[in-house]
Amino acid sequence: MKMLINVAETVVADALRGMAAAHPELMVDIENRVIVRRDAPVAGKVGLVSGGGSGHEPLHGGFVGPGMLDAACPGEVFTSPVPDQMVRAAAAVDSGKGVLFIVKNYTGDVLNFDMAAELAEDEGVQIAKVLVNDDVAVTDSLYTAGRRGTGATLFVEKIASAAAEEGAPLDRVAALARQVNESSRSFGVALSACTTPAKGGPTFDLPAGELELGVGIHGEPGRERRAMMTSHEIADFAVDAVLEELRTDNPVLVLVNGMGATPLLELYGFAAEVHRVLGEREVVVAHTLVGNYVTSLDMAGASVTLCRVDEELLRLWNAPVRTAGLRWGC
Amino acid sequence: MPSSVSSSETAGEPALDAAFFHRWLTAAAAAISREATRLTDLDSAIGDADHGSNMQRGFTAVTEALEKEPPGPPGAVLILAGRQLISKVGGASGPLYGTLLRRAGKALGDAEQVTVRQLADALRTGVDAVAQLGGAAPGDKTMLDALLPALDALATDGGSFAAASEAADKGALATVPMLARKGRASYLGERSIGHQDPGATSSALLFAALAEVASS
């Protein structure tokens, strides 16, 4: 598999050098792997820190900036960051109002953020944590690691951050983040496996002519494989899977998210199908975002995330944001 | 097993010094490095294809740190190694393996030499901490399924590192028909059956390294 890299060992550091070059408004600590908005800590504001394995760009580093995250901690490809990174990030963004860790529900992320929270609190930073677990493809039971965190991460980060910008205290920002997570559900499909630089080949075998339903964002296989379906059929399947677990009379935010290798042409066509199904199910759409936001390296495919909103959440969603990956209203 | 270790074990006298622990971790790093591709391949079947490279990065850091700092007592060597794994590996394996070694190191205290039995007890303390941190039970298709049989083998009368290594290998193999209930493999449900757990496999490598240095 051909890749636009030098060597696999330096892909994360190389990408961080590129972020530093392209985004002077960010402080990119390449050695310690922390991306911080340059004006941090913002006086009187709760700090928001997220992080996770690399390979999901623009998540999380691309969401650092006014109106969204204060800092992000990129791990190795598909590997959670280490506690040192989050401790450093928390110290850099804490204005004295405390810091919220936004953690996608994967065993590694949870363990490393938990260790970081303990260490940061030892250093006098007040920490709250919110777990994102929106993926309906995984049964949430005692017998699994629980639902995975995927597309809803973007909604949680955006909405909670908007509240923090308005001066909301840590417990309020954390409560809002949990509310957004509880109001969001996702479902993803893969048309091809992804290629990790370390492996140099596909992370699983997906025969031509088949798709993987309920795929995660780390190339981990989904739960069911079927003969290739049309965009129309995939939208029916994905939206119904989400609505099964997210009953709503309220309007929804829609994220039609590309996994990395699916062209925008296809994503917009898929977005049309998603809107069609939502219309048929009498679900009102408040806002739709189409693009590659929570990716899985070079995987082809897409995910659908719905977030049930009230007026407050919608107002916070629409608040100005200025980051590399998401930008409006300013 | 060398006569020096087995005889002092029966005599209950201190036998293992810091140099032994240094050699163990160096051998473990070499074994992880040698098997990195296999670990990553196992992980790509039921996980996310990074176990080999992550463990390799972590154990490389361990050997570098041990070479830089003069090894203190055995406990300090394990604590240093555990800290390196927590700081360098990431994922679930960093905190889990790091906690295993750190807690075992703490349990050994600052004794200059420890018996095989003391090491076995310390590792038990470490593995208990791993079980608590990860929330896994035996049979969940995790590293515990290699670690626990190895410790049991070590704890029996006449138990040796070689027997522990053999038990760990068997334990790792026994994860093949198991249904994963923890970690990323659990997302697969029934489809996790038929694959050997990468974490159990790397755990077995640690015991293989222990047997290797004890017999050299």
TrEMBL record, chain A:
A GO biological-process term: glycerol catabolic process
Molecular-function GO term, any one: glycerone kinase activity
Catalysed conversion reaction: dihydroxyacetone + phosphoenolpyruvate = dihydroxyacetone phosphate + pyruvate
Broad EC category: transferase
Enzyme Commission number(s) from the entry: 2.7.1.121
Pfam short name (any one): Dak1
PROSITE patterns given in the database record: DHAK
InterPro entries for the chain: DhaK_1, DhaK_dom, Dihydroxyacetone_Kinase
Keyword Kinase belongs to the record: yes
Cellular component aspect of the GO annotation: cytosol
Pathway(s) served: Polyol metabolism; glycerol degradation
Domain DhaK: 7-328
Gene3D superfamilies cross-referenced by the UniProt entry: Dihydroxyacetone kinase, domain 1 (3.40.50.10440), Dihydroxyacetone kinase, domain 2 (3.30.1180.20)
Protein keywords: Glycerol metabolism, Kinase, Transferase
PANTHER family: TRIOKINASE/FMN CYCLASE, TRIOKINASE_FMN CYCLASE
Subunit structure comment from the entry: Homodimer. The dihydroxyacetone kinase complex is composed of a homodimer of DhaM, a homodimer of DhaK and the subunit DhaL.
Protein name, entry field: phosphoenolpyruvate--glycerone phosphotransferase
Organism: Streptomyces bingchenggensis (strain BCW-1)
Phylogenetic placement of the source organism: Bacteria, Bacillati, Actinomycetota, Actinomycetes, Kitasatosporales
From TrEMBL, chain B:
Single GO molecular function: glycerone kinase activity
Domain DhaL: 19-212
InterPro entries according to UniProt: DhaK_L_YcgS (IPR012737), DhaL_dom (IPR004007), DhaL_dom_sf (IPR036117), Dihydroxyacetone_Kinase (IPR050861)
GO aspect biological process, one term: glycerol catabolic process
GO cellular component labels: cytosol
PROSITE patterns: DHAL
Species assigned in the record: Streptomyces bingchenggensis (strain BCW-1)
The keyword Glycoprotein belongs to this UniProt entry's keyword annotation: no
Domain of life: Bacteria
Keywords: Kinase, Transferase
Lineage, highest ranks first: Bacteria, Bacillati, Actinomycetota, Actinomycetes, Kitasatosporales
Protein name (record): Dihydroxyacetone kinase, L subunit
